[in-house]
Design goal:
- By secondary structure, this protein is mainly β.
- The chain is 0% helix and 36% strand.
- It is built from no helices and 9 strands.
- Strands 2, 3, 5, 6 and 7 form a 5-stranded antiparallel β-sheet that branches. Strands 1, 4, 8 and 9 form a 4-stranded mixed β-sheet that branches.
- A hairpin with a 7-residue loop joins β5 and β6.
Amino acid sequence: MDGATNISVTAGATTPNINAVLALAPPSIQGTVTEDGTGAPVPQCTVSASNAGTWIQSLTDVNGHYVISGLPDGDYRVFFQCGETYRNEFHNDAIDYDSATLVSVSSTTAISFLNHRSHYH
């Protein structure tokens, strides 16, 4: 590994002062999109997080899971777009950007879980 420091150890001896400091991963929003009523996962759903006009997207997998990672600290509006069968909507069943519930992420919390139930048209 580039930048790694080699450490010499001796069998049966204790090597002191080998410490590590781990940095937190950049904040992320993750969760599962399921169908309202049945709870079935909704694959191939586009999940977008918006902060100050910047949109970052992810796509749900076959189990409805998604991760939007590498987010700067801030408040985000999260939008779910799941094809023609389901209604497009923001987090907490909001129908437009201005009424969307904000989701706060910060490097001190690292992960915000946000599950969503998609509604039929």
